[in-house]
Design a protein that fits this description.
Length: 202
């Protein structure tokens, strides 16, 4: 695999539709919710140097973008996606690491967070130093939660007054010089997710 990972530029606009289609197809395959994004939104992220793209010989392989909230105090690495042809090769972890490091360069001192239902993403986040947190520790900017409207689980988030959903919140706080080490346990998180799904869908 000869994949290059770089900051997305105007020359990558042509991949916006494919990126959106891959995100939606992945969500349908996994049976999970995902906040839908338009090609125009993806292109805007590229224009603002707020996206990372992976390519192999001019072919789209993976993508992730950055969002900032509360004047750069909070940053989210969102929309992580890998093309089906490049899955199970460790590319997702490489992209996530790249966008994580780039976020710290562009927004020094920001708390980096994400919400996800994917165990693979939780594992990657945990390895990078994120820890699971309640939604109350994430940004309070309503614009962020507005972005969840495209998700099939938005009604749950709304009913729970934006305090919980099927997603798990994870946060990296650069101010914690020696963050508590949390061992990732897939079996425990799978069971907790099942309990959450049963409880929140009532």
């Amino acid at each position: 695999m000869n994949v290059s990972i770089c900051i997305a530029q105007e020359e990558h606009y042509k991949f916006a539709q494919e990126i959106c289609d891959t995100m939606e197809a992945s969500a349908l395959l996994r049976g999970t919710g995902i906040a839908k994004r338009s090609p125009k939104y993806i292109q805007k992220k590229m224009q603002n140097n707020d996206a990372i793209i992976a390519l192999e010989n001019g072919k789209f392989a993976g993508f992730c973008y950055i969002e900032s909230w509360e004047h750069g105090q909070f940053v989210a690495n969102s929309g992580l996606i890998v093309h089906p042809d490049y899955r199970h090769l460790g590319l997702a972890k490489q992209i996530k690491k790249k966008v994580f490091e780039y976020s710290q360069e562009k927004y020094p001192g920001a708390k980096i967070f994400g919400i996800t239902t994917g165990l693979a993403v939780m594992k990657i986040n945990s390895d990078l130093g994120y820890k699971p947190v309640p939604f109350s520790e994430l940004t309070t900017d309503p614009t962020f939660w507005e972005g969840c409207k495209g998700c099939t689980n938005y009604d749950i988030l709304e009913r729970k007054e934006f305090k919980m959903c099927l997603c798990t919140g994870m946060l990296y706080d650069p101010n914690n010089k020696k963050p508590e080490e949390i061992k990732f346990n897939k079996k425990v998180l799978t069971r907790l997710r099942q309990i959450k799904q049963t409880f929140l869908k009532k």
